[in-house]
Amino acid sequence: MTMTFIIAVALAAVIGILIVPISSRMKDGSFNFKFKALFFIGILLVASIATMITLYITMMDLNWTAVWPVVAIVAFAGAYLSTGFERKIKGLIGLAGIGVAAYMLSAPMMNADEKYESAKMKTEVELKAFDETKTPASVPPKYARNKMKKAFGQVPNTSYYELGNLQIQKINDDYVYVAPVEFSDAFKWFKGKTTPGYFVLSATDSSANPKFVEKEMKYVPSAYLNNHVARYMRLHNPLTIFNGDVQLEIDNDGTPYYIRTYGDFISARNGFKPQGIVMVNAQNGDIKKYKLKDVPSFIDGAVSPEAVSLQNSYFGNYVHGYWNTIFGKKDIKIPSDEGVEANVSPVFDENGEMYYFTDFTSPKEGVDSMLGYSLTNARTGQGTYYTGNSDESYMDSEGALQVVEKKFVEKKWSGSMPLLYNFYGETSWLVPVLDSNGFLQNYYIVSAANPEIAVTATTPNEALRQYKNVLSRTGTSTVNGNSTKEEKQGEGTVLRVYKETAGDFTNVTFLLDDETNYTVSSEVAPLAVYLQEGDEVKFTYLATSEVFQQVKELTITTLKPKEKKMKE
User: Fold this and answer.
1) Cα separation, 140 vs 91, whole angstroms
2) Rounded to whole angstroms, how far apart are CA atoms 364 and 260?
3) pLDDT in tens, 500-527
4) Can you give the three-state secondary structure of 402-442, one letter per residue?
5) SS3 225
6) How far is the CA of 311 from the CAs of 71, 317, 344, in angstroms?
7) Long-range contacts (CB closer than 8 Å, 24 or more residues apart) made by 9-14
8) Where does the pLDDT of residue 548 fall: very low under 50, low under 70, confident under 90, or very high at 90 and above?
9) Which residues, at least 6 apart from 51, have a Cβ–Cβ distance to it below 8 Å?
10) What are 372-405's pLDDT values in tens digits?
11) Phi, psi of 447 (to 5 degrees)
């Protein structure tokens, strides 16, 4: 607050100096110092109050790029009221303001190359294979929000509040959605003063129920006056350039914080490059500012999804400068708008690091093939662009949603939050399927290169198991569970057998006497349908970290003597 007041007074003083004439004289040739002093004091008071009110209401920054129009207009007014050399100086300041205006307006055309360089990404071909011992964060936010609303009865004085925005994050190694309880209107804020807490819901287990955590919060987005958390941040950081909305982050002890990404313009008042965060303790108002490299470890989304969306736009559009976006459009890649937060979707890697996923498509209308996809680290802002296999054409996220819609057209179900994974060496879309009421009904996995290869199941892990069997039958994949796959030979005596029909083929799962488990499709090994307890088997399989290993070749040695006897 003190810094805001000082800056407002300093700006008012500049306005006063520019508008109050020094060189003008009265008719008798003398200066009327008293009048000018009172005039200056009046300007100082009015301008200070106007600046504070403007900042308070709009929550805009007081960076010089925001106040130059006022300075230019006041300089022209001061030139009109003054004479001689002073008039020339103030006139030049006003003309400089016109030059600044031209600079500001031309910035989008002039800084396209700088924007591209600021958003430049590392380039790779494909994602690492997904580790099937993990469960993907596959609960869509729309479904999570519905479940939280159903559980809103846990909140005391329910009529005072409503559910705030969802954020996905990692708390104590669990991937969860968190959503604050917000005031429903100004009257409720005036009566209640603080909100009672926030909801937590698993982002990986669709059967989990929301848990309400009681933590009174004073500084929240739905509060008013100085308790409005974004205004609170602005009053303590009047010159800071923010980008994106405030986001709720919970530390490992359950303490709620609001963060907001700050940075700098690329040039003029155009473009944005993230540099750090401002963080407010939602309970006591303790406020701190961190550079990205110093952000506390519990913060997952230091770079706002809005800032990442801007970076994707710079990277995809400005590869050959500004004019190429209008004429030619060579090598342009348009980022998808199917993301769940500001056109991007947050995902976590195997190390628990959060990334923002986006796929890119062609600017040509009617084309739903994917040109590539990106993952941007949510703590550092560093992005990696994946080109995909150049020998294959991948459908984009919109195409994946259309496939799901056609699959369930009679039930009127639709896909939500499509995410791209490398499942068993096959680039694939995982799409949660919701009914018309927003409730989760299914998971759909479809190959990005071949939409004919697809499965549906009630859980992501079951869908993965079915997908492995389909890929094994079709021979389109190496069916590697993770990056450590190794082809091995096995043999033993069968203790238990389980058979399951899958389309035109049978999936056979068997347990050996050494307590290892395997699965094989009758399309790969047709005689597997005869497998029974007590049989001796030899086989080739791909060793992974999974419970059930995928068999590539199978020989039932106890069948061979019978075959020879029949021939004789």
Assistant:
1) 59
2) 35
3) 886 677 889 999 999 999 988 887 888 9
4) HHHHHHCCCCCCEECCCEEEEECCEEEEEEEEECCCCCEEE
5) helix
6) 32, 10, 11
7) 9/44, 9/48, 11/47, 11/48, 11/51, 11/62, 11/67, 11/70, 12/43, 12/44, 12/45, 12/46, 12/47, 12/48, 12/51, 13/44, 14/71
8) confident
9) 8, 11, 12, 62
10) 999 999 999 999 999 988 778 899 998 999 999 9
11) -65, 135
Of residues 473, 462, 472, 464, the one with CA closest to residue 446: 464
Q: Is the pLDDT of residue 566 over 50?
A: no
CA 423 – CA 206 distance, rounded (Å): 21
The string of DSSP codes covering 296-328 is -TT-S--S-HHHHHHHHHHHHH-TT-SGGGTTT
Residue 454 β-bridge partners: 446
CB atoms within 10 A of CB 183: 24
Query: How many residues are there in the chain?
Result: 568
Angle at CA of residue 225, ends 224 and 229, nearest 5°:
70
In the structure encoding, which two tokens stand for residue 466, read together?
A: 């079915």
The C-alpha angle with vertex 430 and arms to 428 and 435, in degrees rounded to 5, equals 145
Structure tokens at 363: 């600017």
- What 8-state DSSP symbol labels residue 526? G
Question: Mean pLDDT across the stretch 417-436?
Answer: 91
